[in-house]
Structure formats: C-alpha cells, structure tokens
Amino acid sequence: MRRDITSWYSERLNQQMPLVAYGHYGPPVLMVPTAAADYLEYERFLLIDSVKWWLETGKAKLYSVNSVNRLSLLNERASPQEKVYWMERYDGYITEEVLPLIRQDCGGGDVKPIVAGISLGAYIAADLFFRHPEKFGGAILISGSYDVRPWLDGFYNDSVYYHNPVEFLPKLNDNYHLPILRHGGRTIIVFTGQGAFEKPERSRHLSNIMHSKGIPHWLDVWGHDVNHDWPWWRDLMPYYFKKLFG
User: Fold this and answer.
1) Where residue 141 sits, what CATH number does that domain have?
2) Total number of domains constituting the chain
3) Half-sphere exposure of 201 (CA within 13 A, CB side)
4) Distance between CA 127 and CA 14 in Å, rounded?
5) Which helix (H) or strand (E) holds 233?
6) H, E, C per residue of 141-153
C-alpha cells in the first residue's frame, strides 16, 4: 500500500503540520484524530489496516492530519477564548490548506472528500462538515459528542455558536447551506454503540435535529456490547467502506 507523508509550516497555526496519505487513487476520505492524538494514530491502532483492501485497489484514498486539540479544547491552561481562537484557526487550516492539497493530489477539479472522525474527532469532523457542506462530500461521525459547550466553561459568543452543530443546525434556514445538506447528495453517517463509555443519546440528538431539518442521513446504532474502543471502530470502518466504495 502506498503511504506518503508530507509536511509544511502553517502560518495559521504557527507550527509544522504533517499529513499522511494512504493509497494511490480513489474517492478521498479525510480523517481527523481522536482527542489529543496525532496524524499517525489511525495507523498505530490498525484502523488503516482494516480498510487496506480499498486503499490498495484504488477504491478509496485516505488522508490523516494532526489536530490542535492539545492547544484548544483539551488545554486546561487555556482560556475559553484561546480555545475558540485555535478552533477558528484550525478550521482555516483544513479548508484553505488541506483541502486544496487533497484536490491537487486527486487530480484537480471539484473533489470533495468525506470527512471522518472518532470520539472528539467526530465533533471536529461534524463541525467542519456542517460549517462547510459545499467543500465536503459527506461525514462519517463515530462515537461523538456534538455540543462544544462543556469544553468552554460557560463562555459563549458568536464563534461558539457557529462551532456548535447542535445549536446552529436547528436554526439553519439559509438558501445555500441547507439546500446542499438536503439535496446535495451528501453522505452522512452517525454511528454510536450502546456499551461502556458510549453516549448514544448524543448521536440520537444530532439525528433528531437533522430529521427536523429534512437532512438525509443514517443513524447507525449498534448493540449494548459495543464499547467506546478501538476493536469496534476497526470493525465498523471496513463495514462503511464496503457500503460506500463497493
């Protein structure tokens, strides 16, 4: 399997930001890491191996990036304002730096990767997707929480609102983003287990909001034995890749 690492200095984030691409060609999937992990997390936990067949046969190509969660939501020394600042900068890094690279790497044109994330990465993926549905082909949201406010100690402003899918989606009534979400053919998968450390009510809440807005999606609820842990996530990724890419 082809594996290419590239890195550049992001002026937005004031740091070197590496990225790894797996596979030769195929529809792109962009994965953001869980919690405070890095761009090689999915490789270390063998999730890349679980979808290796699709990557080797050109059915899909997968990109994995670093997060800034250590500086933002998981930084106990940062003020809420600082956390939101880093969230804003990271949004620009993905949309203005990573997505152009993916488009170029995939041959140019109007390439729209599916964005995917697990746990805290699911929130980051949802935040990116629902803010910019015109830039993504869909979202795979796994075992996530979609309300950012618990990380911000009661701080609130317009930026918090627009980084909080469970707040801004119910009030979304514009003539641009909402039609894309409703009729743009986007793939939206929201997964939750019901076992240890899973919070299925959070995924159901996001699903109920999308139902109320007429946004097609798939809420996939697995059993009470399905825990918030890597063995299950390694099982479900090839399950979704088969459905999405054949």
Assistant:
1) 3.40.50.1820
2) 1
3) 1
4) 22
5) helix 230-245
6) EECCCCCCHHHCC
Cβ contact 127:151 at 8 Å: no
Spatial neighbors of 33 by CB under 8 A, at least 6 apart, are: 39, 41, 42, 64, 65, 66, 67, 69, 117, 121
Instruction: Note the pLDDT tens digit of each residue in 42-89.
Output: 999 999 999 999 999 999 999 999 999 999 999 999 999 999 999 999
Virtual torsion, Cα 45, 51, 52, 55, nearest 10 deg = -130
For Cα atoms 227, 202, 222, give the angle at the middle one, nearest 5 degrees.
40
Task: Determine the average pLDDT of the residues in 208-228.
Answer: 98
Domain span at residue 231 reads 3-245
Residue 55: partners with Cβ closer than 8 Å, 6 or more residues away:
1, 2, 22, 23, 26, 48, 61, 62
> What does pTM read for this prediction?
0.97
Structure-block tokens of residue 40? 């090689």
